[in-house]
Write a structure and sequence with these properties.
Blueprint: H1 3-30, H2 55-70
Length: about 90
Amino acid sequence: MSCCRRRSRFAASTVTAAFVSLRGLGKALTMDLGFKPQNALCTHFDLSQAGYASDAAADRFQRQLLERVSQIPGVGGGRLRECHRP
């Protein structure tokens, strides 16, 4: 197979892969997430650095934080999620 043919096939497969990726990205951007991310707020905090040595104290703080945030006018709800970073 000549060098030109290999380049042409490589270019064609690269362009095809790019279009498939863009199509998948378009679907991902328009899929129903189950919530409206426009007004979502996400934050990360490390309670061990704030002096919460025990898991029970950290859990209590997080529950109180969620209760208080949920009472702010205009807030539709709140969730807590644990995220373990390597």
